[in-house]
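Section 3.1: Structural characterization of target chains.
Under the original work plan, the team committed to producing a structural model for every single-chain target entering the pipeline before any wet-lab resources were allocated. The record below documents one such target. The sequence was received from the expression subgroup and is listed exactly as submitted; it comprises 745 residues.
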Amino acid sequence: CWSIDEGERGYSYAAHYVADNDILSLGWLSRDIFYTFDTKSELKLIFSGYMAKGRYHFDIEEPIGSNAEASWTPNGARPGQKYRGQPAIQNPVLNSKKYEMSLVYHTYLRDSNGRGRLCYHGTVKSSVSTRKVYLPGTTSFSTLNLLSWEESLNLAMKKGEWLSVLCLGVELYTGQYKGLADIPRDDHQRKIKMQPVLKMIIRGYIDNQLTNAQEPRHDQVEPVGIPRPTQIPPNDITIISIIEFCINTEITDFLFTDMYNKFCDADLREAFLEKLEPFILNEQIRKIPRNIFFTMVDYYRESDRVEIVERLILHLDLAGYETNQILQVCNEERLLSAYIYVHTKGECNDYRGPLIKMFDMFQQESNSRTQTEIGHKLMWYVRLCLLGRQFPSGMIPDKDWSVVILDIVDWLMTEEILKTLLYFDSKIYFECLAIVFEDGQQANIIDNQEPYNPKNPNAPKCPTHTEILDMLEDHREEEIETDFTVFIARISALGRIHVAKRICLSTAVSLLKKAVLEPEEHARKEKLIIQMLNACQELDFDDINELIRKAEFSSFAEVHILLLEHKREYVRCLESFIQSEFKLTKSKVFNWIDKILTRLHEEAEEDENMNAQATIERLKQEILRSLRELVEIDSELTADLVRRWFKNAHKEVINKLDLVPELQLEYLTNIIYKRDQEKAKVEKTPNDHPNKKETLEIENDLLILNVKLLCMIRPREVRRFLERYEYPLAECLALCEEYNIKDAQ
């Protein structure tokens, strides 16, 4: 493709096009469009604006050993500069005044000997205005008429090729074709230009389809016993096609005026409403005229399908509709979701109205199952508002959210509402209320609300956190006690909201009552109690004593231990660990012992505190007395404990376990295994552990005792033990003979 220079150059390279097949002929139809005819007998129309910018370089195939050269000769012009390998025309001689705008008809590539290597053969064509192309063949001469886009549409409509017509209409509207005559390149202008054409297409299509709709044939015999295949009625296909076409070409206003009237005239109004519904639910159509909307509402109400009415309301933009009329439909058909949507969107912007409506329906409902559904939907909506979310999607605007929070909480704490909903489902009620205590943003809205001002009595206001807790305490009864105490424990544990000591104490006492709980629920409640007690800084000596008496007979051993720690009664703490009915709680005793002994040693060293030293000795004595129980809990951790705090007093521990050989063996096995591991580390890096190897040698009496216990309890493991460790030969052989362990002997 060449562009015209005003100077002496004449033409210069602008772009190039590479065809899939060899081109036999080429001709320009306008400044921007040309056609090609190739060896596959394919005629193509090409828009020059889509061509690749710049010059195309290609290699000439040269025979081996030759110095082939090629020259480029335009139509009737003198040959250009010769080149080797690639064309490199710098200044082709073409004068725009002398030659046609359709450019060249023939291009030849010759080698240095003048033999033709490639031939670019153009074809004869008439002027652009006639839009005819002549294709000369070896035995025939063909004339082709090039149709404009309007002529193509009209021809396809005459042939009844409506699917092609509709597709071409959408493609023209969306700008998939470029360089067409009389179609603006600007998107907005193109769409304005095409809309009358599209309306003409759709009118022709519906007239054709309605005229040619096939009536059922009465002379056709139905085969017996063979069901007919289910097919979509032709009219339904027509309606769906028209709806999709109008959506894709953005002429839905035409769909709901001219087309809707045509459907009504053809007695297809109900079919149109049925086919329109999925496009609304899929949100391809968000706005429909008011009269059609209420026609749809009446149609689905009459056919007893009010659930579709609710879905339509939820998926349509209702701006400009009569809100009161829609709310009346929602009231009559009990469409709660739609009622919420209409109240909180658009002009109403009322978040409290749906609560009042649902609460009235809840109280008036006689069917218990339906009443439960309404109640749960009400609480779900409360939670949605407190979290700042709109229904069915989106977020409440920031400018409205603080007012919504205060309004919802004020409504929840109204005497009648509080009493009704609290005893309807206390767990869900407290879950909702916890949002304004636990979440920082919602809690701040309540904390920072303006005090009551007589000059502005309508300003949004709700009870403070303390007032809410006092009101809940006034309604505290046995049937909601469990959920109430868990709620108080949750908000107290955070430490963000001050909870009165009397409420904390009563909550702790209530939670400490004996109850059968699943392990996970038990662990969750115990954690809450501990967090609540740690957060409550006002407990005095009498409070702690009262709680200890309650915790002592409960299953919450860790709570009991926490309270005893406040009184420094560590021996009782150890007993509580060991006596716990939960294995997980028992396993925590070793970390607790390390923590307490470390703390006491620090106290004793800092202040030379004799009381701390005495407490250490008492606790250590209790640990030694409880060795059997500790070994049962975890023998390996017990061995580590003794090694750390009792300076390897393993013999004393073993003597304590003398009456329980199984525990003795387990404890000994762990000691020997641990020392064996440490010894291996020292042997690998002896320089890092000087003089430590001797301290890790296992005493002979421990080895002998271990062999004896193995002979008694696990005779099959004796040989493996003797193969691994060095041992006193005579004593161990005697034991093997005594217990008749043949393979070990």
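The CA atoms of residues 256 and 289 lie 7 Å apart.
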